[in-house]
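[Meeting: bench + compute handoff]

Bench side (C.D.) handed over the final construct sequence. Compute side (W.E.) agreed to return the predicted structure before the next meeting so the bench team could plan truncations. Sequence as handed over:
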Amino acid sequence: VCRRESDGRLTEIDRRLHITRLGQGVDATGAFHPDALARTLDAMADFGSELDELGVGRRRVVATSAARDAANSEAFFAGVRARLGVDAEIIPGAEEARLSYRGAVNALSAVAQPVLVIDIGGGSTELVFGTDGVVQQAVSLDMGSVRVKERFWTADPPTETDIAAAVGFINGLLDSSGIDFAGVATWVGVGGTVTSLSALIQGLAVYDRDAVHGSRLEGGELAAFTTELLTMSAAAVAAYPTMVPGRADVIAAGGLVCRQIGARLGIPLVVSEADILDGLIAGLAEGEV
């Protein structure tokens, strides 16, 4: 939630996150799990209550095509409408990429061009390549943290065979992505997987957005920490002080995706706390919708 000041600046009023795992089981069943749907709509109710209390008039809810494609998607859309008073919009991958890229890059100091922005979600990973604020290429790959974990993990922690199969799957998608990894000058990561990895690698006792934003993760430390996570049970991972509920059992899978991307780049990962939400807010402030 932001307020636009008279000089055009945006002042952040509230920012909150609910990890609802809406994609739970979708890869296997093609439908939203009832529990995941309930968690998501509970989060929407929380958002709606806060927006009403703050008197927010301009609201926007966006979802990717995966929400539309789920067999029981109408329950999601009706629930959003009832709790927030607006319809959830389905945005194409290209628009999602543009918004994420805009939010991430605008929040960082001058960075070398071209830039690759990645967002490792639950069901998919977005890769956006651009120069000087202009998106030149964007792809969405079906290899999110939840999807990889549900498809390949047979034990907790995963076996060497599980990990090898996941690596083969991830590498295959990256090979066919068409992204020119060799041409990337700056690698930027957004979203909960990357920000969580930053907090964990830094050893933060309490999550600190200021410490996470703009942090740089060297390829070697990212690879080493991910390898360590892959040897730990979800319960052990959950004991980290900055590990938020709902992510402990999938952070290793998300880290594996990140590690395999990093292996192709050979440059540090710059972490941005700004993401698609910031891109959406900027658009609303400028009259887009």
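W.E. noted at the follow-up: The chain has two domains: 2-90, 109-276. C.D. will use this when planning the next construct.
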